[in-house]
Write a structure and sequence with these properties.
By secondary structure, the protein is of the alpha/beta class. It is built from 13 helices and 14 strands. It is about 40% helix and about 15% strand. The structure holds pyridoxal-5'-phosphate (PLP).
């Protein structure tokens, strides 16, 4: 057994399950195992739990419960939003506009739609990682089906001007999808204020279980189902519901809502403390503007290979991330940092640190010390 005290600074990848969420889920994995579609007592118990959770998730984002469709992940919800809107669009409108910094669940789906007879336009971001609204306006033209603009970026935490983007898209007759997976539980969320038609959440980013997400579908939005079969989720998503997962998502959403203000403030202080110490390391630079999630720091260290850095940090007990996606045969450089116009050396030397509910000041200070030492060691090894 290793005696390393581990520090988890990768909450944007996933969060630990809150024990209160687990407690709420367990009965639905044991005695309350009914199928919500069944008419008998067992089924109706499960149905009641699913509907209670639907209300809780809806409350987190200011939606009506009937506008929530449970899915198996944020990725599924993103695909459902784009494909579902695309399938209902007239041929002349089969264009999808996405920002250059979207998650691959949006980007790869949009590119697949382009190969299937549509077209995709990628809207630029500035060096601060924020969407260029003028470019979005141009890319929208008058014939887009849907514009997809994320609320908070998973690598930099940068917040996007979703409400402004929605106004532009609606003026041109396009639907608006917002991937709010990273913002869920970390920033206030109100679908009416954002004026979006579709919005994605995923439970495992907010101390809920993995394998459960949802898509908010504004009442009246034309959307074809992605998964066909039974009549679950009001005919919008077939498949027997993941009852325990949905219950966990519901409780996680309630807890996130209750703790949002205090936790955002607490974690923001810790993130700023960590970042300040990291930026004091010579050759360190912050990636992304200041309008961002309170929990995320993305810093490049000149002359350091981030992949090697993450591995070395792991050996010292600090779990961080490069922000880049693992691809077959290696790590692909971050499309997000590339889109912000950074040269390859800066992209390859970027470290993402994402704090969470369990993060303490002691951990942040120790992580900053360890990162400073490991960066120095790696630079010394290169010379
Ligand atoms: C912004 C964003 N969108 C979508 C996803 C995908 O969510 P899931 O892991 O539930 O498929 C992620 C996960 O990292 C994400 O960060």
């Amino acid at each position: 057994m290793s005696s390393v005290q581990r520090i988890y600074l990768d909450h944007n990848a996933t969060t630990p399950l809150d024990p209160r969420v687990l407690d709420a889920m367990l009965p639905y994995l044991r005695e309350s195992f009914g199928n919500p579609s069944s008419l008998h007592w067992f089924g109706q118990r499960a149905r009641a739990a699913v509907e209670d959770a639907r209300g809780r998730v809806a409350s987190l984002i200011g939606a009506d419960p009937a506008e929530i469709v449970f899915t198996a992940s944020g990725s599924e919800s993103d695909n459902m939003a784009l494909r579902g809107a695309f399938a209902k669009a007239r041929e002349a409108r089969r264009r999808v506009v996405v920002t250059a910094v979207e998650h691959h669940a949006v980007l790869h789906c949009a590119k697949a739609l382009a190969e299937e007879g549509g077209s995709v336009e990628i809207a630029r971001v500035g060096e601060d990682g924020r969407l260029d609204l003028d470019d979005l306006r141009v890319k929208l033209e008058d014939s887009a089906t849907v514009a997809s603009v994320m609320l908070a970026n998973n690598e930099t935490g940068v917040l996007q001007p979703v409400a402004e983007a929605a106004r532009l898209a609606h003026e041109r007759g396009a639907l608006v999808h917002c991937d709010a997976v990273q913002a869920g539980g970390k920033a206030p969320l109100d679908v009416r204020a954002l004026d979006v038609d579709l919005l994605t959440l995923s439970a495992h980013k907010l101390y809920g279980p993995k394998g459960i997400g949802c898509l908010y579908v504004r009442r009246g939005t034309p959307l074809a189902p992605l998964v066909r079969g039974g009549a679950q989720e009001r005919n919008r998503r077939a498949g027997t519901e993941n009852v325990a997962g949905i219950v966990g998502f519901g409780v996680a959403a309630s807890l996130a809502r209750e703790g949002l203000v205090a936790e955002t403030e607490r974690v923001g202080v810790l993130r700023d403390r960590l970042e300040e110490r990291l930026l004091a390391v010579p050759g360190a630079r912050r990636n992304g503007g200041l309008g961002r999630l309170a929990n995320t720091a993305n810093v490049s260290f000149d002359g350091v290979d981030a992949e090697a850095l993450v591995i070395a940090l792991d050996l010292e007990g600090v779990a961080a991330s490069t922000g880049a996606a693992c691809a077959a045969g290696g790590v692909e450089p971050s499309h997000v940092l590339k889109a912000m116009g950074f040269p390859p050396e800066r992209v390859q030397s970027s470290l993402r640190l994402s704090l969470g509910r369990g993060t303490t000041q002691e951990e942040v200070d120790r992580a900053a010390d360890v990162i400073g030492v490991v960066v120095g060691r790696q630079r010394a090894q290169r010379t």
